[in-house]
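sorry for the late reply, my laptop died twice this morning and i had to redo everyting from scratch. anyway the thing you sent over, i finally got around to it. pasting the sequence first so we're on the same page, its 299 residues, then the predicted structure underneath. double check i copied it right bc i was rushing
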Amino acid sequence: MKRKNARDVEETFFKGQHLRLCDLKKENIEHMFLYKTNIPAYPESVEFHAQKLSHATGRHGLEGIFHELGFRQPSETSGLLWFELSFTSYDIWSAERRFLKSLSSRTQLPILKHFTTSKAFQKGSPYGNFCFTFSIRELLYFYGAQFCGGCSPVLHVYETVLYRQEILYSIVVHPRNIQIYDRYPRLPDIGDGVCGYLDGTIWWRCQAPSETYKHRLNINQWNSHVHVSPHKEEYFVWDHVCVAFHMEPGWVLHVDQDRLLKRVNVCQVSRPCLLKDPETPLSLHEAKNILTNLKASMG
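ok and here's the structure:
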């Protein structure tokens, strides 16, 4: 199914499903990159474990979050508050260990650094210079305490959304008494799906870690030795996971000031810039000065 999003960009979406790359190819979608056959071999279905989520915003968003002491839905037309998976270098190293172990390989050289080049693994954000990063546990705790009567919220498979070069897998979080998501499957804790949640960790089997491939993965079938070689540049789709918290009009996901100050950092605005007026991208120097002055004003 097709629709236009709030930014007037056409997207193909599948409600209540997380469709793998191979499943999307069976949907007979007109797409420039999805069906390319000349992509060099790369690590497929590498399992990443994320324990943190991030939310990036511009200067006005930053000021609003500290004024409200929390996060609200971005507009009256959207009932969702969006966060992205946030990965550390250790998370990537751990995923590489799991990948090599699955091949029974004793290779010690870094492999994934050549392939984890999509926006899913970058430090910048197209949504602004100010990035708030929380553990998944604390966000679910705050949400449950404030909107779920102290009970744990529910996580459901929400959508697969396909753009020109991007595959988005979304998870929706909501109180148990909100029934509009009942038709969506519960997010699994284990299994062979695209992603799931277990004990404070979202696991994700990444199928397309780069949007531009400049290397080829080579596996020796005799001794399972793995190495990487240069390859002619090829463009492809890339995938990532986002978490959407259901927010009713007027709801604010409150976070105390000290925690907000500890959880915010500055980052580059990556391309394409998705900031909306009156927000504008800032240099790192400008962003650092704004954040320093904000922190100083709060003692």
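The mean pLDDT is 94.
thats about all i looked at so far, will dig more tmrw
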